Amino acid sequence: MAIMETYDLVILGGGPAGLTAAVYGRRAGLRTLVVERESHGGQINMTSSVENWPGAKAVNGFELGASFSSHAESLGAEFLSAQVEKLRAEGGRRFVVTSAGEIEAGAIIIATGASASRLGVSGEAEFTGQGVSYCAVCDAPFYRGQTVAVIGGGNTAVEEAEYLTAFAAKVYLVHRRGEFRANRSAVDKALANPKIEPVLHSVPLAVEGDSSGVTGLRIKNVQSGEETSLAVSGVFIFVGTVPHSGFLRDLVTLDQGGWVVTGPGLSTNVPGVFAAGDVRDTDLRQVVTAAADGARAAMSAYRYLSDSGRVSH
Ligand code: NAP
Questions:
Q1: Is 188 noted as a catalytic residue in this protein?
Q2: Is the whole-model pTM more than 0.85?
């Protein structure tokens, strides 16, 4: 495949990590390209309200992502809409193979993030888009006045359950343990909401439905063994995330969960290749930590390029 272009810095992924890396890369004078397969913003596009981005008490996730993107663009970052298929190293040279062609990069930042895990229960795949959803902000308005179930006990589940109460008449919050994983303030707020009914110690067994869509959620109480069905027309699943890292497997070291293993300066095992944000092995996956990672990775990339005399300006 012919090399389309050469950039100092190629950033894979246009979420908060990648777009912050682009801001820092451009401010350091690097010719910078962001490759993104979907719309810029990443997972925050699916977040109704981000309430822990410093300086903004509450900001719509999509608007925050758009502001990151326009900031990077205003500084001269370039964007390519394509799927990254793999990375290739040839001696000291690095290549990004995309669905739109191959690009040579002085340095690469992997910021491809993660996406919603599937539960794997019967009916889940069949009714996805017809009652099963992984995005409250996208689908909540379809459930005005109806009863829905949210599955999960982390911050996403608890906060999106709360968001759904603006539309749904009732929200069952189904969690497999007796204690929520989400932080205290989010749990207190959700449990104080009279529209939310927690269903604890319960695991989903199947999404039930017919030609009209979802009609129920079959659950099992893990303490009593009792099985019941909740009559719901929507099931929102928020049971964690999986990294977008499969395309890296041949070159970059991943841990058992598939997260990119990073060292000092967010370096990977491949010189000149760095990782930032949710895709890497980290203990906190927030917008603010992703953005901070983006800044660190970009400055590491800049140092790597300067030290090896590869900056194009
Ligand atoms: P998470 O924290 O990993 O929580 C996943 C939840 O799903 C857990 O409660 C887990 O139960 C449950 N779960 C996992 N597999 C399951 C299965 N097969 N069946 C039933 N339940 C299952 O994921 P998240 O809520 O998406 O959050 C991801 C990261 O983003 C976290 O670090 C979180 O703090 C962060 N986040 C932060 C905010 C915020 O600060 N405002 C908002 C959203 C997300 P167990 O608890 O029993 O393991």
A1: no
A2: no
